[in-house]
Amino acid sequence: MKPLVHAVVGCGRVAPNHVDGFTALPDAELRWACDRDLARARALAREYGLPRVTSDVREVLADPEVDSVSVAVDHAGHYELVAAALTAGKHVLVEKPLAMTVEDGAALTALAERAGRVLSVVSQHRYDPVVTAVRDWIAEGLLGRLVSGTVSLQCGRDDAYYAESYWRGTFAGEGGSALVNQGYHALDVTRWLTGGLSVVGAATGHTAPRGGMETEDTLAAVLRGPQGALVTYQVTVASSITWRTRIELVGTDGSVLFDLDHPGTLHLAEGGDALRAAAGTVRGQVSPPPAGIGYYGISHRRQIADFAAAVRDPRHTMAADGTAGLDTLRLLREMYRTARSEGGAASAGGSGARSAGGSGAAAPSGTAAVGAVTARG
Ligand SMILES: NC(=O)c1ccc[n+]([C@@H]2O[C@H](COP(=O)([O-])OP(=O)(O)OC[C@H]3O[C@@H](n4cnc5c(N)ncnc54)[C@H](O)[C@@H]3O)[C@@H](O)[C@H]2O)c1
């Protein structure tokens, strides 16, 4: 079989997870490290043994042997690079979120469809053993009808994280912050498990902003599942704890509490005998050590294997395709819109004083925005 030839575009913090995932495939060749900062591309290539480096993505896309591309750059750069790669006939694995706006995201999924190319948005936690198990339990009815949920995420970030980045904490480069970046996975996983969520209300806070960030550092929302379950969702990057997720889903016949930080960690499963027995199998699983930064988890590998399977077989259905990424983007933009509807200083889409390439400006202080929009239920 011809090896799948892959390129990584964007050689920053998350790039090692992509390198690791494609390296772990039995039939792939990782060829290009591309970063507009050539030193970064060189460093990644040197560390992981990639044969070719460039600062110009056009060189990657002109390589006729390249089948697929990881796009792992700042959020504002996703649309242009994904569109260029699909237009060049490449399959694309793009880091979350799919794009900055729903309109751009929809244009990308439509382009992938027209081009007959795989487009997948990274949602690695959908592949965590505990998450896939909970999804099965819900499908099997072990929790009964979902009635309630609580999602809470603390992921403290220091001043340098924002101050030293050209895009983090800016509306122009990131499109929001605590929700769209750190809070993305907990939202995506919960949306997937509940079968869809709509926004009841949302608020953003600029509570203790670090490093000149202009975007929200805290967000809280009330969401509603398709059968009426009410889910409270909270994320903050202003805590002293680096990363702690808790997702609790409560049904009429059982409830589960798990995290995304230690894939496989099920804190609680209460219900009937079938649920308790199933929970025992998840508790016994041992996960391999993560490839990159620990809290990114272990499942980039699994999603990349799923992506490669879809590239090889157009009939293969992915757990995290472009449409899934578009639906999560739609939900999170609606959360921001709802929060902004009451007029908040730290709401996404507000007038950003710091541009994607800029150095930073004083951030507004205080809390912001309370929205209350009733949705279906
Ligand atoms: N799935 C996860 O758990 C996870 C974890 C971290 C980051 N991410 C996502 O990955 C993406 C990148 O995040 P990061 O933390 O690695 O960012 P980073 O700032 O560390 O790296 C981004 C790199 O992209 C490069 N770049 C920007 N535009 C480019 C272009 N046009 N051509 C080539 N290179 C370009 C920059 O020079 C930089 O080196 C973001 O979408 C982020 O949300 C996902």
TrEMBL record:
Q: Which SUPFAM superfamilies does the UniProt record give?
A: Glyceraldehyde-3-phosphate dehydrogenase-like, C-terminal domain, NAD(P)-binding Rossmann-fold domains
Q: Where is the composition biased (Gly residues)?
A: 346-360
Q: Does the keyword Oxidoreductase apply?
A: yes
Q: By its UniProt entry, which InterPro entries does this protein fall under?
A: Gfo/Idh/MocA-like_OxRdtase_N (IPR000683), Gfo/Idh/MocA_oxidrdct_glycsds (IPR050463), GFO_IDH_MocA-like_dom (IPR055170), NAD(P)-bd_dom_sf (IPR036291)
| Keyword Transferase appears in the UniProt entry | no
Q: Recite the UniProt keywords alphabetically.
A: Oxidoreductase
Specify residue ranges for compositional bias: Low complexity.
361-377
The Gfo/Idh/MocA-like oxidoreductase N-terminal domain is annotated at 7-121
Task: Give the domain of life.
Answer: Bacteria
| GFO/IDH/MocA-like oxidoreductase domain boundaries | 132-256
Q: Which Gene3D superfamilies did the record assign?
A: Dihydrodipicolinate Reductase, domain 2 (3.30.360.10), NAD(P)-binding Rossmann-like Domain (3.40.50.720)
Where is the segment annotated Disordered?
A: 342-377
Query: One Pfam family for this entry, by name?
Result: GFO_IDH_MocA
State any single GO MF term.
Answer: nucleotide binding
PANTHER family to which the protein is assigned, alphabetical: BCDNA.GH03377
Question: What is the name of this protein?
Answer: Gfo/Idh/MocA family oxidoreductase
Q: Which organism is it from?
A: Streptomyces vinaceus
